[in-house]
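>> received
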Amino acid sequence: MKKLLALAIALLVIGVTVVSVSAQQIGAQQNVRARIKTLGAFGNGLAVSQDNSMDFELIRIGVAGIKVGLADEEATVKVGILHFGEDKYRLKEVVIGNGSVTANVYSNDTQVGSLSLNSYPKGDKEVWAGTLTLNGETYNAYVLQAHRLVKPLEKAEKTFEYCKNNPEKCKAAMKAVGQIVCDPVTDGNCRDRIKNFCEQYPDDNRCKALRFAQCKLNLEDADCRAEIMGVCRNNATDNACERLGEVYNKFVERRPEVLQNVPRWFATVRERLQQQTGELGTGQQGGQ
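>> returned
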């Protein structure tokens, strides 16, 4: 397990955006298999001292749950990397939630700080905001989530997992946009055929529908939130938008000032959520 954790950290250092990594890239002597299972905070930003706003540093963060295999050994581990200026730190004890990330910051084997971030929409982007403590100093941290191109194989594998765990919903999602590829309820080999089909034809409407259905159940994944946000910008009435709105609303409840200039879809969804609960709005809502 320690070897897999070390490999996962190495993969994150060279770039977790890849679907697979060759053994030569990380110096391993055996075949390495790596896939992102859950993407947390991933991007560039600033850390600004809470004591002096002109004391700031460029930061780069990568946090992910990576399914990594070495020979016959396989596990999913949550790892992270923090670049603070020219210095590099590891993030351990990582917890990835629905729009939240917490971790402890380590230099070698010594804990030197902690990180707590929450995400919310800004324009057509997702921004992480929170607190970073490092070497006795406390900073406000802001990270712009980087766009990641999810490759067909990765989408297909997540579709396979969705159909494996939810065969009836899988069938219904396909049927809603066309004929089913095969019946995952009655056909034991159907899930593999769906995986192969969606790897070859990722833009097929049935594969898109399955990917979206899978994402609605996995809002802890930043890739999924980005995909749902793209739909919500054009159709804020989709029920997935309410689920995503609830994720961001948790941050807004603590920091209502961020409601200024929020995207129009989120303002619409938040108003609908408030009507459902009978709450009154707090702060200003924008409409970008």
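>> Residues 34 and 68 are 4 Å apart (CA to CA).
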